[in-house]
Design a protein that fits this description.
Layout (H helix, E strand, L loop, with lengths): L5 E6 L2 E6 L10 H15 L6 E6 L4 E3 L4 H4 L4 H20 L5 E5 L2 E3 L1 H8 L2 E5 L3 E3 L13 H9 L1 H9 L3 E3 H7 L4 E3 L4 H13 L3 H13 L7 H12 L3 H11 L7
Helix pairs in contact: 1-3, 3-4, 4-5, 5-6, 9-10
The protein binds acetoacetyl-coenzyme A (CAA).
Length: 257
């Protein structure tokens, strides 16, 4: 597939997807969402990729939101379709992806940009980042999962305040709130993010995938998370990684996953 709006780099088990629309601060239009979605589908089937990093091009923005010029003339039906399709194509796909997805937030992460970071499993944030869900200032609300995921990450009270004031926060506030996993200097961002990816890659990919599924079960009202954990824990005992991991421990050697 010819990629117009994202750059895909593949190195040492890590696929880095860089959103590349710097003239509009990497705003997410339909084509960018589709390209990210298709890139994830191909990564899913690529045994050489263990971790995905999503970042933005340039030093000013991760993603400044959904592309406002694309939806400004939409009616109610088109608005609902925008949110539904975006969630299914990209945001839910990332949240439930079986390989860890890390957002390397290199500047503005607003609206759909913060929603993209929040759908990711881990957020590493550069010290120049500004994060927020300013949609109500445009007469709309977050539509790519933001009202749900912000409350899950920072709690209902803080999410309520941030969303209805259209507030923006700096990197250290995001860290304090638990929205950022780590804050690092902008020039260190990718190196640090790759270090975290490296720590993940030492572990069993099969167990990592199941851990993501089990943690997500807490946020799925249709299932009982503890029951899900029991079933998923049991399923690990049937994997080749479990045999290798436990044998390696008993044989006092490093596992080869
Ligand atoms: N959509 C489309 N274009 C955008 C954009 C967006 N979300 N954000 C920035 N741009 C464009 C600007 O229009 C501008 O284009 P021109 O050069 O052609 O004028 C260019 O990017 C540079 O932006 P600014 O000149 O505004 O840069 P700045 O440094 O003065 O301000 C900013 C930076 C504070 C991030 C500002 O651009 C801004 O407020 N952007 C919009 C943020 C926002 O409201 N995001 C939420 C979008 S709605 C959404 O995401 C809905 C959803 O949940 C599904």
């Amino acid at each position: 597939m010819e990629l117009e709006n994202i750059i895909r780099k593949q190195e040492n088990g890590i696929a880095t997807l860089t959103i590349n629309r710097p003239k509009v601060l990497n705003a997410l239009n339909k084509k960018t969402i589709l390209e990210l979605s298709q890139a994830l589908d191909s990564i899913q089937n690529d045994n050489n990729t263990k971790v995905v990093i999503i970042t933005g091009s340039g030093s000013k923005a991760f993603v400044a939101g959904a592309d406002i010029s694309e939806f400004a003339s939409f009616d109610t039906t088109q608005g609902a379709a925008l949110a539904r399709e975006g969630q299914a194509l990209l945001f839910d796909k990332i949240a439930n992806f079986s390989k860890p997805v890390i957002a390397a937030v290199n500047g503005y992460a607003l609206g759909g940009g913060l929603e993209l970071a929040m759908a990711s499993h881990i957020r590493i944030v550069a010290d120049n980042a500004i994060m927020g869900l300013p949609e109500v200032s445009l007469g709309v609300i977050p539509g790519y999962g933001g009202t749900q995921r912000l409350a899950q990450l920072v709690g209902k009270g803080k999410a309520m305040e941030l969303i209805i004031t259209a507030g923006k926060m700096d990197a250290n506030t995001a860290l304090q709130y638990g929205l950022a996993n780590h804050v690092v200097a902008q020039e260190e961002l990718l190196v640090f993010t790759e270090k975290i990816a490296g720590k993940i890659m030492r572990n069993s990919p099969q167990a990592v995938a199941v851990a993501i599924q089990a943690i997500n079960a807490n946020y799925n009202h249709a299932v009982n998370g503890f029951e899900e954990e029991i079933a998923l824990f049991g399923s690990c005992f049937g994997t080749s990684d479990f045999k290798e991991g436990t044998s390696a421990f008993l044989e006092k050697r490093k596992p080869k996953f």
